[in-house]
């Protein structure tokens, strides 16, 4: 994954970066789509740098644009778990490199994921030490909900899902919240009425407030 595949927004006015927010896009999308969250949140986090990497793999058919963190065919929990585990080391390395570049550490890191990117956020953020400041998962699944013995439990987690999501079933919010709570993680979960598989203004407001609180 090269620097050219990472979209970024630096702190305004040449400020030194004091936080790093990593934005992980969904299946078939790219970092350029999700970096818009950084533009929206830069007002509440003026000292944050936002980066949105493109996932490392192209989609399997040449006629399709966009990227994937891992291949999806069956779209079942086993495939999500296996794929996220395999893709995690490259993403962990990218986050390590970005933190080093800005002179930051995990305590100044937040990871935000949408859909497949949410699965990657769960898989990586909860296994980083020391604990990152925040994890935000939008419209996604928690990989391996019965295999959480190796996670750290100090990172607060925001989970947001729409009750009209027909891509990733809304029940996955309930399942993730229950599994993480049993493991000792502090979870703030929101099921939004009428929201489909997307990010709307309500999600952006919840996310911005959560990040501001986590970095306060």
UniProtKB/TrEMBL annotation:
Sequence ranges assigned to domain Phospholipase/carboxylesterase/thioesterase in this UniProt record: 13-205
One of the Pfam families matching this protein, by short name: Abhydrolase_2
UniProt keyword annotation of DNA-binding present: no
MF-aspect GO terms: hydrolase activity
Residues making up the signal peptide according to the UniProt record: none
Keywords of the record: Hydrolase
Keyword Disulfide bond: no
PANTHER family listed in its UniProt record: LYSOPHOSPHOLIPASE-LIKE PROTEIN 1, LYSOPHOSPHOLIPASE-RELATED
Name of this protein: Phospholipase/carboxylesterase
């Amino acid at each position: 994954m090269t620097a050219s595949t990472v979209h970024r927004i630096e702190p305004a006015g040449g400020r030194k970066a004091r936080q790093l927010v990593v934005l992980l896009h969904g299946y078939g999308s790219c970092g350029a789509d999700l970096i818009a969250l950084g533009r929206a949140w830069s007002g509440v986090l003026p000292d944050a740098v936002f980066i949105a990497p493109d996932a490392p793999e192209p989609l399997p058919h040449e006629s399709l644009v966009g990227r994937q963190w891992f291949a999806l065919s069956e779209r079942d929990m086993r495939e999500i778990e296996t794929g996220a585990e395999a893709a995690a080391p490259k993403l962990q390395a990218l986050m390590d490199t970005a933190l080093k570049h800005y002179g930051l550490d995990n305590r100044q890191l937040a990871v935000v994921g949408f859909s497949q990117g949410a699965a990657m956020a769960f898989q990586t953020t909860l296994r980083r030490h020391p604990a990152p400041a925040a994890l935000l998962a939008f419209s996604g699944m928690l990989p391996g909900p019965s295999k959480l013995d190796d996670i750290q439990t100090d990172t607060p987690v925001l989970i947001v899902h729409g009750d009209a999501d027909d891509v990733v079933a809304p029940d996955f919010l309930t399942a993730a919240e229950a599994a993480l709570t049993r493991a000792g993680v502090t979870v703030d979960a929101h099921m939004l009425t009428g929201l489909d598989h997307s990010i709307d203004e309500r999600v952006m407001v919840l996310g911005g407030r959560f990040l501001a609180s986590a970095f306060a």
